[in-house]
Specification:
Helix 5 links the parallel strand 4 and strand 5. By secondary structure, the protein is α/β, with parallel strands linked by helices. Helix content is about 50%, strand content about 15%. It has a four-stranded parallel beta sheet with strand order 3-2-1-8.
């Protein structure tokens, strides 16, 4: 069962402005990465469930988060159907992110008051998602659409909250471009969760880049 309501999750997304994205089949690696993000100041993480037995890793990771990382909100991404969403919610997922707009996922998440964020790529999809109760729409792949797309959407629909994912990096230029266009928060994957030359996750850099990204977001909003 989720520890946070969809409104609580949406508020943290809006307040911090950053949702790191990450997946590993190794539970120890996953714990180390989420701890690095947490130490850097992140208070949300999307576990992109893209591998076999991902639900088992997620369940163990969420137990660790609840016990060791107070205030950290763990959700799940790359969810493709309602049954998968229900499975992860049974393991305590606090939010559910999908690559496309899935109305079946909306129904099961709304029933439990769990935030869901569908991947949308048109104004029609965004409007439908909001009709289904979506608080924050995922713009995916963000790098294809860019900040100008966000600005164009929020012209006629200033109430729309958008989270671009894909094509977002922890540089000042990139972050400023998105937030000046009006995004609510950004999702960052491999450009934030980096590996070293040996193929291991660079935990110190992940922590440092997370802290830096949050500071840039804060400064842009002032």
């Amino acid at each position: 069962m989720a520890q946070y309501s969809r409104i609580e999750v949406a508020n943290v997304m809006k307040q911090t402005g950053l949702v790191p994205l990450f997946y590993s089949s190794d539970i120890d690696v996953s714990k180390n990465v989420i701890k690095a993000c947490y130490d850097g100041g992140a208070r949300l993480l999307e576990f992109t469930a893209r591998g076999d037995f991902a639900h088992e890793v997620f369940g163990e990771l969420n137990k660790y988060v609840i016990k060791e990382l107070p205030g950290m909100i763990l959700g799940v991404g790359s969810v493709t159907d309602a049954s998968s969403a229900s499975q992860f919610m049974n393991l305590g997922a606090n939010f559910v992110v999908t690559p496309v707009l899935r109305e079946d996922v909306a129904l099961v998440c709304n029933r439990r008051k769990v935030l869901w964020s569908p991947g949308c790529g048109s104004l029609t999809e965004i409007c439908r998602a909001e009709e289904l109760g979506c608080e924050i729409v995922k713009l995916f792949p963000g790098g294809i659409y860019g900040p100008n797309f966000v600005k164009a959407i929020r012209g006629p629909q200033p109430w729309t909250s958008i989270m671009p994912t894909g094509g977002v990096s922890p540089t000042r230029e990139n972050i400023e471009g998105w937030f000046n266009a009006g995004v609510t928060c950004v999702g960052m994957g491999s450009k934030l969760i980096k590996k070293d030359v040996n193929g291991n996750y660079n935990l110190e850099q992940i922590e440092s880049d997370t802290k830096s990204a949050l500071e840039i977001i804060k400064s842009v909003r002032q």
